[in-house]
Amino acid sequence: MSGRAHTLSNEQATLDFAARVAHAAVGGAVIYLRGDLGAGKTTFARGFLHTLGVTSHVKSPTFTVVEPYEFSAGSAAHFDLYRITDPEELNLIGIREYFSPGAWVLVEWPERGENVLPTPDLDLEFKHFGEQRNVTAIARSERGRHVLRKIEWDSE
Ligand SMILES: Nc1ncnc2c1ncn2[C@@H]1O[C@H](COP(=O)(O)OP(=O)(O)O)[C@@H](O)[C@H]1O
Ligand SMILES: [Mg+2]
Q: How far does residue 38's CA lie from ligand 1's centre (Å)?
């Protein structure tokens, strides 16, 4: 993925980045979270959802595929498609329902849902960088460009 890589020096830096994105993503957003196992995708989701107002524990949806959240500002869904082998499985679980306007949707392993998932607003890619991580962001909609402008990152 192109775009400038930003260093995330430790777990807290990933949580802080997620909080900035959440503050900027007013009115809902679809965000893809790419990267290998351990790259920090679930950490980002935790920081993002807690910033939106989720007070419960954010657990990895590795086994459940999706964890839905309801909170005072609206609703969110956190997907992990690692175990999906056929994107058609996503239609069976009624994936469309989670993408209502105004909702926040985070998707780990979006490449497993190709042709079924809607285009995201933001496409984030996390990479191991020694003990640290880095992240690259690409906006794929006007809403996504708005988020990157608000956090003062370059939009492609
Ligand atoms: N920026 C970072 N630097 C170093 N470690 C990090 C960073 N962000 C997250 N981690 C750590 O990486 C580990 C795996 O993170 P996780 O979010 O579960 O990855 P993924 O969901 O991509 O598999 C966790 O122990 C987390 O604390
Ligand atoms: Mg994960």
A: 5
Q: Which domains does the chain have, with CATH numbers?
A: 5-85+104-150 (3.40.50.300)
Tens of pLDDT, residue by residue over 113-152, are 989 999 999 999 999 999 999 999 999 999 999 999 999 8
Pocket flag, ligand 1, residue 37 (CB < 6 Å):
yes
For residue range 63-112, what is the model confidence (pLDDT) as tens digits? 999 999 999 889 999 999 999 999 999 999 999 999 999 999 999 999 99
Dihedral pair phi/psi, residue 38, rounded to 5°: 85, 5
**Minimum CA distance residue for ligand 1 atom 10:** 11
Question: Which of 7, 14, 15 best tests ligand 1's pocket when mutated (most atoms within 8 Å of CB)?
Answer: 14
**Is the whole model's pTM more than 0.85, yes or no?**
yes
Question: What's the CA-to-centroid distance between 44 and ligand 1, angstroms?
Answer: 8
Own/partner long-range contacts of 146-152 (Cβ < 8 Å, ≥24 apart): 146/24, 147/21, 147/24, 147/25, 147/29, 147/121, 147/122, 148/122, 150/23, 150/24, 151/20, 151/21, 151/24
